[in-house]
Design a protein that fits this description.
By secondary structure, the protein is an alpha/beta fold. Helices cover 42% and strands 11% of the residues. Helix 1 runs parallel beside helix 7.
Length: 227
């Protein structure tokens, strides 16, 4: 039986503490052998430098396939391709090519006067370099800006025709969309249970490790991997 390919996506760390949490998460998830891990770009390209530093560091230190997110937002074509070239020079040859979200405070995406107008244009330009494996976004439900599900599929095909080799998506946009429902209402905790919870909290269990273990359990549920 074939198993779905799973990737893990991370936000670029903004400080030293967040860097340690990222490293912790990556080490917990690495034994699951994801198809790749990726680092997001931030709305409006706000984490451009942080993304680059995180991607290149993970590439050097983990041995995992690492993909950099790259968008069309707030950059000219020359600037965007220059960023891509720095990844190629660092040995990072996988890119998640996206149009990108509108910068904070703006209602919709507006192309840079000298930039790429869409993800298809970006994908085509990156494909022309011959240096990258290109992944693109797909959507489990209709994209908010799409006129229909059929239009979504047509746009995905256009991205693949432009040079993308695969597409990534979530399981769904909300818990209800994948049929997740609460199974029971937990009882009111007793004083003893509250004390035990406080004791556990005092041990300072890393939230990143708890989140990583949850993701690992979800991965195994999807792929029937041994726990």
């Amino acid at each position: 039986m074939s198993h779905p390919k799973v990737s893990f996506e991370f936000f670029p760390p903004r400080n030293l503490e967040a860097s340690f949490r990222l490293w912790d998460c990556v080490n917990v998830l690495a034994p699951l052998a994801p198809d790749f891990i990726s680092v997001t770009y931030g709305a409006g390209g706000t984490t451009r430098q942080l993304t680059h530093e995180a991607v290149t560091t993970l590439h050097r230190a983990t041995g995992l396939p690492v993909a950099a997110h790259l968008t069309c937002v707030n950059a000219s074509r020359a600037e965007t391709l220059e960023i891509a070239e720095t990844y190629a020079q660092a040995g990072v040859t996988q890119i998640v090519a996206l149009r990108g979200d509108a910068p904070k405070g703006e209602a919709k995406f507006t192309a840079h006067p000298e930039g790429f107008a869409s993800s298809v244009e970006l994908i085509s330009a990156l494909a022309d370099t011959g240096k990258f494996t290109l992944r693109v976004g797909a959507y489990p439900e209709k994209h908010p800006e799409a006129s229909s599900l059929a239009a979504d599929i047509d746009w995905l095909k256009a991205k693949l025709d432009a040079g993308a080799t695969s597409a990534i998506t979530q399981l769904g946009s909300s818990a209800s969309s994948v049929g997740v429902r609460p199974r029971y209402r937990p009882p009111t905790p007793s004083a003893r249970a509250i004390s035990a919870a406080r004791l556990q909290s005092s041990r300072r269990v890393s939230p990143s490790r708890l989140a990583s273990k949850f993701l690992a359990s979800l991965y195994c549920a999807l792929t029937s991997c041994p726990t």
